[in-house]
Target: Ribulose-phosphate 3-epimerase
Amino acid sequence: MRPIIAPSVLASDFANLQSEVEMLNNSQADWLHIDIMDGRFVPNISFGFPVMEAIKRHAQKPMDVHLMIVEPELYIERFRDAGADTISVHIEACTHLHRTVQQIKATGAKAGIAVNPHTSVQLLEDVIADVDMVCLMSVNPGFGGQKFIENTYRKIENLKNLIIQRNSQALIEIDGGVNQDNAPLLLEKGADALVAGSFVFSSPDPLQTIADLKAVK
Ligand SMILES: O=C(CO)[C@@H](O)[C@H](O)COP(=O)(O)O
Ligand SMILES: [Co+2]
Model:
């Protein structure tokens, strides 16, 4: 199976957001990855609802929204209204994770759980059957352009085993430092979806870079 490619709009040129989104529409990207940072869960602030709605007005592909915010349960419906197709919340930010997953699904969005590099995937044991996706962070969240953490390969294996054991349909998404060099092994270990920000938008030809990632086996 060819990977799902989800370029992260965080790395795009915000002064030319419409043309960046149109480039993604014309590319082989499957999803638009939307990074929401609140300056509390992570030490950075990205953008909020008005920008997301502006992206949605031009996007012709599903929006994969990665919430790096505390108390995400307060904003799930608003992110859905702003155009989210998948909403991922961090396990580290949710006291009542099971409830928040049900809340996301009740909006009609797909539910994802994002997991920081230090967090064991075993903590997902009792919720994995309920989710559509697990977003494994392969950098510490908060910034684009960071170095990929190698331990991610082992975590994919552990997560894949858990998904099989629990008869879950969850997709495995890898987020942070993804490039053409690490993509083959990520897919071999069991990744389904690859987020790529700086690798795509800093490349001389983003359309070709996305096509090259899509072609990785
Ligand atoms: O969630 C995050 C960072 O917190 C990511 O989605 C990054 O935005 C991916 O960017 P690169 O590491 O590919 O530059
Ligand atoms: Co992200």
